[in-house]
Amino acid sequence: MTVVASGQNAAAERVATWVKSLGQSAGADTTLRFAPSTSNSIDITHANPSGLAQFLAGRRTRLSTLLHDAEQYATARRTARALASKISELWEERGIDVGYLAAGVANWRAVHEGKSEPVSAPIMLGRITLTKHVDADDYDLQLVGRATVSPAFVRQFEADHDAKVDVKAVDAAAYSIARFDPARGMDALRHQMAEVPGVVVGHRLLLSTFSELMDPADPAKLTGSHPVIEALIRHDLSEKQAKSAADSKASEALANLVAAKPGNAAAKPETQKPAETAKDEAAKTSEAKSDEGKPAEEGGSRLRRVRNILKDSTRPRKQAGAPEEPSTRKVHTGSSTLAKSSDERDPEDELYLLDADESQSKMLDYIAAGESVAINAAAGTGATQTALNAAALLAAQGKRVLVVAEQRSAAEEFVQLFNEQLDAASLLLEPNEDPEQLRTLLTKAILRNEKATEPQLGSMFKRLRESRHALHEHVKSLHSVRSRWGCSPYQAMQELARLSALEPAPSTTVRLKRSVLDSMGQRGHVAAQLKRAAQLGAYSKEHTTSPWHGAPLRNAEATEQALNLASGLGRDLPILHEHMEKIAKQSQIRLEDSYDKWGDQLQLLVAVRGSLDKFESDIFEGDIDDLIAATATSAWRREHGVEMGSIVRSRLRKIAKEYVRPGMHVADLQAALQAVSVQRDAWRAIATSQRNPQVPGGLLDVEAGYHDAGARIDKLAGMLPPALGSRLREMPIAELLDTIAALVDRREDLGELPERTLISEQLTEAGLGDLLDDFAEREIDADAVDSELELAWWQSVLDAMISGDDFLAMNDGSKLEKIEADYRLADGAHIASGPQRIRWALSRNWKAALADHRAGSRALRDMLKSGAPSIAGLLQLGAPLANSLTPVIVSAPLLLGSALPEDAEFDAVILLEANYLALREVLDALRRSSQVIAIGDEMLGGPKRFEVSVDPTARVIEHKQDRSALSALNKVLVSGSLSTVYRGIDEGLVEQLSTTYYDNSISRLPMAVNISGNSPLLRSEYVPDATGSLANSEDGVQTTAAEVARVVDLVFEHFKNQGRESLAVIASNRSHASAIAEAIRVQLPNHKYAMDYLRSKQEPFVVTTMDRLIGLRRDAVIFAWGYGRTPHGKTLHEFGALSRVGGEQLFVAAMTRSRSRMTLVSSLLPSDVDLNRVYRGARQFFELFGRVEAGDSGVSAMRNPRFDPLVSDLARRLRERGAIVAEDYRGVLDLSAHVFDSADSGIRPLAVVYDGTEHYAELTVRERSRLRPEFFEKHGWRYVPLWTIDVFTDPGAVTERLAKALQLKAPASAATTEDSSLRSSVAAARPVSARDVTTEPAPKEKTGLLKSAKSKQDPKAGAASEVSGEEPAEGNEAKAPEAPAAGESKPSTPAPVPASQATEQPESEK
Q1: 347-453+865-981: CATH class
Q2: 1154 or 1393: whose pLDDT is higher?
Q3: What's the rounded Cα separation, in Å, for the pair 409 and 405?
Q4: Are 384 and 390 in contact (CB under 8 A)?
Q5: Which residues does 720 contact at the CB level (< 8 Å), separation at least 6?
């Protein structure tokens, strides 16, 4: 037990020590240390009795009614002005009410921490309102509610005197009559304290500022076991140890340097401890540092060495492989989770009260998993929206959420927005609890839960999933690299567009088989072969028309042999021809016209000669069919159906034998007669006379010559191109002779033929035969080979990828547009259903709590019917019941101790604007929840200490800057940033802030109003010749009359022209703000119309300074610089707080207070000052004012703009039509296009977004298909989505559609109108910067032949081929795509949103 107690004491002491190191954020406690004076209070103890009675009765009473004495009234009025300002300041900035009537003051002395100190404590406090009277220089006072005995007085008195105060008795005495009677209350208290020595109770009525600020960092309530608090303590301890170690290293390094000085006789190596020397040297070094900037003396080099060594020794060095320091470890309070994108998240898992972009959704994923996070949200990035979503998300999970907001406006805005979506789901803690108001709120919450119905969203979720999947897969398919070919469809389209822009453009229509594409690999070797073939003349008409072209001759020996054969035939064939003609003439037959038929004729002549040797010549005269039958066997006759008697057969056989020549014996008479019959028919077919056949002499010699030449022809045919060689025997004799002669004449073609043959065979075997034929047909030269091959390859690959991908093959622009429209509607409905889904979740939790916690439900019913509802009573109902009614409680940090029970716990705490919250102030909130969510922006400034008293002598003691909760939690929690600015009025200003202060982490989507270059929403007003008096030598000229007058004019101009917009004037210093406010007051009688705007309760007009901007936001802002020249025209380089530490935060805060427009007013230009002498926020102001005054947009030109050939082609076409076009506009839009007078004509500029770019693919479907289109449409653009398939296949139609949206005139003549089915071949230009937009026309385009792969094929057939693995028919792949007929409709393109406003006609109808 002793060990445990000791450990607990050590832990408590550790926490107490850490809390003490955080310091105090408030000044003196006026509830215990109140020293009344005319400067800090108004004494109405002896006020006019009738006025005092009216005031104590709770009626509104003028200050002048209470105090009739002129001198007293004048003093009280000055104090009242200070009190009203302080009450308003602390209410708005701290959320605490400090305006009170103090009835009675008790005084005594007590010993605190060994010192005797006086105690002066107000006894009874009654809340008052103190407001300026409308029509007079007077103030209205009213006592609100019931005065109560000060709890601080009671606690301190009982602690100091060990006595009890009967609070009820004092209260009863004070209200013993119809109104508040403080005298009776004081008398009752005096009676109780009659026995207590040293206590004096004075009867005084004082109006002043009081606030019982319970310590939010009471060590007794904190515990080191809380994960976040423990992490903060551990981090601070680690930092302190690191600093101590660094200081030790610095001292050691300095000591070593001193010891190493030459001539230092006192220095002892290694063993001597140079402590004193180090101290002396450190002092000298400090003196040297204070003289920095002075010319270096002889020792200057040595001093620099000292500083460098100190710097190096204190720089932390992380060793390789060293474990992470404890100070850098993040504390995790939730389940392990990875934030998903909206594409990966199931819609049913998304539960948002309001819309959310990707950076916000990422942090909401962490929050939903119970993780503690620090969210860095620059002004305008959606901090409040994210906080609302986080609170609603946690509430739907059945959790209780505490929202801490120091600024009253932020708290009220949060509650208002939250309850607009979820009736009575949040409540705002007030300094004085109102039971009736709480009763009303709880009743509304119960009605909300009872009326809630379950939303039926199944079909909507289904549509959302399907459309999102289709859009996601479309872009994925478009950009997915196919490993088979190492490219994506989009890359193929880009390459094809690039090829079409060449001069001249390639135009092959050959498509390669997939097996060929797969086997080609690197195309360089193939291109080299094709180019070498071109150099050898493989594609020239001179060579392709040669009879040797295509001959399979692979070496010189083969070519020599082929040439010898051709030469021999060229010599012998004419001779053979003469002999054949002579034989034909003698035989009286017609000579056939081919070599093979010569052989048939020679064979016939030889056969006839054989028959004539056996028979008489007249055997050929008559019909011998009966003789054949008579000499045949009986089986032959039966087979042929011949019936012949024996007598007839005998007679006919006798006749047949009479035809046989004497002395000849014919063994088979029938066969011989059959041969004669065949020969007779063949002879008659070629005979030129009626005589019987005769055969001339020398036939056998001619036949031998014929066979010899035929053998050589056959051998030569095998050496010739197959198409030619196979025809030699069949071609006409004249052609054969000419061919042989041509072969001999073109013998020079044989020189390079073997190499050409080898290359052609290799390429043909590789599947490129069709490409070779196409090259030869078009006589492609060597320089064009590369581009032609690339075109064939890329187009073939694109065909293959499209045919094998359902999302590319089945979608065109119109289908994608419809899918995107469906997605936009479904996703919008999904987000809009969030409040209903959350209400249903609360209702479901409510009904479950009623069933499971019957005692709690009865207690709730009793409390609402007869009891006095309270926050404590609500929390005692139990978490399930209370959390289903009002799960979100909003409070200022300083109210938590008094408004919530000490043991009240929450599931999560959200710190709004955590950069303004001091870490010490939020410890009470942190201890109540394990999950902490901090949202804010450190560049808007940090926490400020405050003083409750208005006494000018009571000021917060100057200490080091308090650490903000955001900066502390950023180091120990998972942190993230919101990246998109939605409230920034000027892109250049956002870029300046992002570059200078946010490490380029925030951006602003472009607005159409900025298309001209400089934003009309950010204006500058230069006031020349403005001078002013010098306030003091340190502050310079803080205000000038000329600038004040110009600001006043701008204020009243705003009220007159834009009176519906709220306005604030922000001055750089208090002197300038006071001068402007006074000038407006003086001029107000001349502008009666402005009174209504000045009296507005909703965002009233204010004149303030940069250090009073917490919670301030207005539609319009006038920023008044104030600083000017002296009467002598001299400019002093002292610009107050902007030039000092913290000036950057002041500048950022001032520049981000406007929602719609801002005007910068200054009497100094950047050229009037030496910018090298201007620092921090002041320098940033001059840079901003200078560029706005010069009309510069402030948006830097992109160094490496994205280049896309397809987009560049569209841009060129639009410029030719007269549009002003910028490519890659602001790095967001692929094209921005507008007409010259877009502002006057009312024609919206086009925001063109193209689905083919990598930037588009990096966005989620929600961003690219809904969030950004909605933003562009809302901010003046006409959003136009373009689809790659349309831009690629039909750029002319897309251009026409964009031109129609801009109301551009049609081309001057039809001759300039291109066939929209063809992509033009123009030189590709680099992207144009937004700053260099020009309307000059680009060079006139020339027609190329790049065509669509998709519109010329059957996707189903292609898909079937892909699945089956079969190659498409060779002939089909080589066919060129046909241009659409004149009457055919061209592929449709998506219309701008809404689609109904951009219906297009086919170009043929225009």
Answers
A1: alpha beta
A2: 1154
A3: 9
A4: no
A5: 547, 548, 551, 562, 728, 743
Tokens of 1046: 């110009």
Helices (H), 501-645: 514-520, 523-535, 541-544, 556-587, 595-614, 625-631, 634-640
* pLDDT tens-digit map of 172-222: 999 988 789 999 999 999 998 888 888 999 999 999 999 877 778 888 888
- Express each pLDDT in 767-788 by its tens digit: 888 998 888 888 888 888 899 9
Domain ranges of the chain: 30-209, 347-453+865-981, 556-745, 987-1189, 1205-1405
Average pLDDT over residues 84-105: 89
Q: Tell me how far CA of residue 1256 lies from CA of 748, 1199, 1202, 1248, 1275, in angstroms.
A: 60, 19, 12, 12, 20
- Looking at every residue in the chain, the average pLDDT score rounds to 82
Q: What tokens appear for 1281 in the block?
A: 């989505």
Using pLDDT thresholds of 50, 70 and 90, give the confidence band for residue 236. Answer: confident
DSSP state of 1090: G
Longest dimension (CA), the chain: 185
**Band of pLDDT at residue 663, cut at 50, 70 and 90:** confident
* Distance (Å, whole) CA 523 – CA 763: 12
Confidence of residue 346 (pLDDT cuts 50, 70, 90): very high
Q: Write down the pLDDT at residue 1185.
A: 93
Asked if the domains at 347-453+865-981 and 987-1189 fall in one CATH topology, the answer is: yes
853, amino acid identity: H
The residue written with tokens 């060793």 in the block is 319
Q: Tokens at residue 823, please?
A: 């997605």
What does the pLDDT look like over 852-875, one tens digit per residue? 888 888 888 888 888 788 888 888
What top-level class would CATH report for the domain 987-1189? Answer: alpha beta
The answer to whether 1007 and 1016 are in contact (CB under 8 A) is no
3 state DSSP class of 911: strand
Share of the chain above pLDDT 90, in %: 32
Q: For residue 24, what is the DSSP state? A: -
DSSP state of 584: H
Given a contact cutoff of 8 angstroms between Cβ atoms, the answer to whether 66 and 125 are in contact is no
Q: The tokens of 438 are what?
A: 């709480």
Strands 1220-1225 and 1229-1234 turn out to be: antiparallel
CB atoms < 10 A from the CB of 519, how many? Answer: 12
Residue 685's pLDDT is: 86
pLDDT(1326) > 70: no
SS3 1223: strand
Is 395 in contact with 887 (CB distance < 8 Å)?
yes
Stretch 1216-1223: mean pLDDT = 90
Backbone angles phi, psi at 257, to 5 degrees: -65, -40
Other Cβ atoms closer than 10 A to 1009:
16
What are the C-alpha distances in Å from 474 to residues 324, 1089, 1154, 1283? Answer: 43, 59, 41, 10
Judge whether 1249 and 1360 are in contact, CB under 8 Å: no
The three-class DSSP label of residue 310 is helix
How far from the centroid of its chain's Cα atoms is residue 408's Cα? 34
Q: What distances in angstroms separate CA 1114 from CA 1060, 1064, 1084, 1107, 1150, one per listed residue?
A: 11, 6, 21, 16, 11
Q: Which residue did the predictor score with more confidence, 1346 or 677?
A: 677
Mean pLDDT of 56-67: 91
Closest C-alpha among 42, 115, 52 to residue 80: 42
Six-digit token pair at 854?
Answer: 């019957």
Q: What confidence tens digit (pLDDT) does each residue in 11-43 have?
A: 788 888 888 888 775 556 678 888 888 888 999
Measured CA to CA, the distance from residue 235 to residue 330 in angstroms comes to 10
Helix (H, G, I), strand (E, B) or coil at 1059: coil
Residue-wise over 438-458: b if at least 16 C-beta within 10 A, else e? bbebbebbbebbeebeeeebe
What is the spatial distance between Cα 576 and Cα 733, in angstroms, rounded to a whole number?
A: 11
